[in-house]
């Protein structure tokens, strides 16, 4: 028994409308989730990846608000597994192995969990290099007030036929100085100059322990060179498929769609584009925001986006595209009513996208903002970049880090400063924070668990440290995390 029957029955009317896979979650005498290898076809080539299947064989879970995540997760792979329940704030530290000293779930073994699911669009993923091999799945808990809409889940990945260890080696990086448990020790250690693919651009300044104030960011306003996409990928996937053969989702004429987008890519930020259909953003990272209309929204690694779409009454085919930041490449799915003509969409947009910025967050307002309160503690975190593909926080890689110490119940503010050449999507475990400041000033921005920290742009977040334990705080660029850009928040 996995998901509470009482709460399931209470919501089954609504759930039946949205998806055929909900009802099967109940039948979980077998493991609730099984992690195992599977094979995808990517551009005509077989690709061995991982998957996380529910008892019904479908990837991930879709539950209803009030349900508990209660049951076993089985590691059916031949490698140790460190799973992270991304966005699940009710999972105690002991129920999330992606914590300091959390250890790994051995091959062939299972963990048993029991925690209240956090409503919203969340996900689960390995906290190791295997995240690159699609060891990730949706973990969506339909909100009680989600209403009569068709839920469409869209999960994005960056894909390479190379192994993540090869990718890391190609970047010049090593997990030897920064990686945490479970990262393979086989990645060769690089020496000599950085192997970063800077595309001929200059390095940003290193962190070297400097701590300027907000108004003194190095390179501000001086045309500082920035870059994105330091890994050359073979494909970008939307629900495991490319635009050569995209998923076509059947929708109704005049239908109302709730698009739940998860950026599960390890090193790629996207712009989600709804094309002809105007969207209303109603939640980010699973937390509701005041409705904001638009057609194009940035989505960094780890982030989620909930968009409401009202389809035209005469139907048609509506591509939902995700374009790589600072690049032309794109992926996506197509929403189509019965009989609609579906035209092929190329894998390159006409123009390159811009870099992902904080512009959306500066406009979004939380639906349930934090109470007004002065921070009890403010931490200043300087993100840094050093030769040898070494990414740091306050000049330290993970392992050398000083934990951020907080007491339970305190209001904490974190100021991120980023003099590096890349954007960093900074993610805190166990908590949702509110984005409350940037160069645009102070604002009651969205509640999230992952925030874009653009180069040379200070970003402030705030939250109440209400969860005891040790929680990772890290960059959600997998290779930045693996090489050191990770610290921890310790709540006593
Ligand atoms: Cu980063």
The CATH architecture assignment of the largest domain turns out to be Sandwich
Percent of residues in helices: under 10%
CATH class of the largest domain: Mainly Beta
Strand proportion, as a percent range, falls in 35-45%
Outline? globular
Helix count, DSSP H or I runs of 4 or more residues:
4
Unreliable stretches = 1-28, 181-222
Structural class given helices, strands, pairing? mainly beta
At the fold tier of CATH, the topology name of the largest domain is Immunoglobulin-like
Considering the protein shown, what is the CATH homologous superfamily of the largest domain? Cupredoxins -  blue copper proteins
* Count of domain modules: 3
Distance between the termini: 34 Å
Report the C-alpha radius of gyration, rounded: 21 Å
Overall residue-averaged pLDDT value: 88
Extended strand count: 31
Bound molecules: copper (II) ion
| Main sheet characteristics | 7 strands, mixed
């Amino acid at each position: 028994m996995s998901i509470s029957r009482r709460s399931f029955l209470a919501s089954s009317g609504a759930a039946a409308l949205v998806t055929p896979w909900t009802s099967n979650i109940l039948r979980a005498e077998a493991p609730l989730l099984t992690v195992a290898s599977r094979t995808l076809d990517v551009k005509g080539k077989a690709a061995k990846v991982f998957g996380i299947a529910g008892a019904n064989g479908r990837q991930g879970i879709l539950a209803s608000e009030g349900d508990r995540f209660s049951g076993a997760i089985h590691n059916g792979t031949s490698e140790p597994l460190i799973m992270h329940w991304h966005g699940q704030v009710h999972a105690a530290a002991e129920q999330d192995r992606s914590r300091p000293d959390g250890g790994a779930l051995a091959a062939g073994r299972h963990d048993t969990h029991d925690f209240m699911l956090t409503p919203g669009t969340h996900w689960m993923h390995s906290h190791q290099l295997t995240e690159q091999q699609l060891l990730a799945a949706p973990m969506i808990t339909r909100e009680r007030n989600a209403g009569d809409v068709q839920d469409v889940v869209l999960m994005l990945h960056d894909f390479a036929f190379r192994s993540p260890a090869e990718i890391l080696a190609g970047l010049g990086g090593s997990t030897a100085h920064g990686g945490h448990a479970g990262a393979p020790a086989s990645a060769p250690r690089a020496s000599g100059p950085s192997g970063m693919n800077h595309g001929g651009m200059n390095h940003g300044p290193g962190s070297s322990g400097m701590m300027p104030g907000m108004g003194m960011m190095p390179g501000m306003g001086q045309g500082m060179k920035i870059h994105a996409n330091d890994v050359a990928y073979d494909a970008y996937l939307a629900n495991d498929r490319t635009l050569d053969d995209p998923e076509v989702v059947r929708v109704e004429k005049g239908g109302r769609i709730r698009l739940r987008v998860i950026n599960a890519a390890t090193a790629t930020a996207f712009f989600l584009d709804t094309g002809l259909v105007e969207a209303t953003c109603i939640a980010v990272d699973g937390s509701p925001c005041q409705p904001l209309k638009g057609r194009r929204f940035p989505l960094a690694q780890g982030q989620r986006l909930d968009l409401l779409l009202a389809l035209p009454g005469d139907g048609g085919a509506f591509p939902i595209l995700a374009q790589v930041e600072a690049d032309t490449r794109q992926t996506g799915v197509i929403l189509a009513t019965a009989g609609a003509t579906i035209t092929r969409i190329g894998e390159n947009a006409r123009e390159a996208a811009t870099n992902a910025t904080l512009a959306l967050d500066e406009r979004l307002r939380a639906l349930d903002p934090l109470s007004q309160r002065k921070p009890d503690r403010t931490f200043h975190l300087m993100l840094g970049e050093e030769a040898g593909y070494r990414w740091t926080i306050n000049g330290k890689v993970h392992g050398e880090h000083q934990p951020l110490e907080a007491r339970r119940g305190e209001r904490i503010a974190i100021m991120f400063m980023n003099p590096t050449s890349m954007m960093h999507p900074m993610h805190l475990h166990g908590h949702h924070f509110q984005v409350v400041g940037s160069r645009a000033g102070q604002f009651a921005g969205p509640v999230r668990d992952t925030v874009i920290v653009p180069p040379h742009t200070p970003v402030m977040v705030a939250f109440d440290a209400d969860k005891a334990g040790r929680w990772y705080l890290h960059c959600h660029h997998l290779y930045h995390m693996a090489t050191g850009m990770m610290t921890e928040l310790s709540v006593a």
